Amino acid sequence: MQSNFRWPRFANFFAKVLDLAPGGEWTPKACVPRFFVALIIAYQDEESNLRDFLLHMHPFLQAQNIHYRIYVIEQTLKKRFNTGALLNVGFIEARKDALYPCFIFHDINVLPKNLNNIYACSEAPRHILTMITADDGPKLTDEKSYVGAISLLSSHFELINGFSNEFYKWGSSDKDFYHRILNAGLQPLRFNHNTSSYYSLPHKLPQRNPNADDFHQIEGKAFHRGLNTMNYTVISHSDESLFTRIIVDL
């Protein structure tokens, strides 16, 4: 059973204060925004983290004067959670709403610290999150694993055929995505960790794919399956006060 988001009154009040359009969309009125961004989240039964994420990210993005909309792609419980496939669905469905030039794919349990970490796209795919602070202190993220938060142009996402939809559990799709970028002839980009530092929200550690470090397994799946092989059913599509909610069956 999917989360029913049991805080609608506060969410509606918060959306009114922030002057959000239905579906969690906002555009600055005092200037012409340089960036138009779709922020995509893969979701399954993490309501407290979703609430904390939205309460942090809306003011953060508005302080950067970015035109944005937040999409939460929620998987039914019929099958194992597949992050890559859900993020692909988010790209496909968001493009039906608008021709977003820039996409950001984001974990629900990490929050950016620095407003200089601009949530927009560069000429190259960018790993936005380079350092993460949790209970055990700050740690640099792996340069060869695009975990946490990623920004790239929609044209680049199509070029690399999106995320693999082959991987379940945790640890493989992030590494596969890095190799897709390289195989497409693109140069990955990372900012320094002072700019790209994040907090980690408390969360259950997902099950790790035991073959996550098997490069040969990852390399063999590059490009062949992704956006071009997506098969899913949209159960519902609704404009919530703080986000666009799309429930899918994979």
Automatic annotation (TrEMBL):
- Establish whether keyword Transmembrane helix is in the entry: yes
Associated pathway: Protein modification; protein glycosylation
The record's section on SUPFAM superfamilies has: Nucleotide-diphospho-sugar transferases (SSF53448)
Assign the protein's first listed, main location to one coarse class.
membrane
Q: Write down the membrane topology.
A: Single-pass type II membrane protein
Question: Residue ranges of the Galactosyltransferase N-terminal domain?
Answer: 16-122
What does the record give under GO molecular function? galactosyltransferase activity
Keyword annotations for this protein? Glycoprotein, Glycosyltransferase, Membrane, Signal-anchor, Transferase, Transmembrane, Transmembrane helix
Family matches, as Pfam families: Glyco_transf_7C, Glyco_transf_7N
Q: Which residues form the Galactosyltransferase C-terminal domain?
A: 144-204
Q: Which GO terms describe its cellular component?
A: Golgi apparatus; membrane
Where in or outside the cell is it found?
Membrane
In terms of domain of life, where is this protein from?
Answer: Eukaryota
Q: What processes in GO biological process is this protein linked to?
A: carbohydrate metabolic process
Task: Spell out the family assignment given in the record's similarity comment.
Answer: Belongs to the glycosyltransferase 7 family.
Return the protein name: Uncharacterized protein
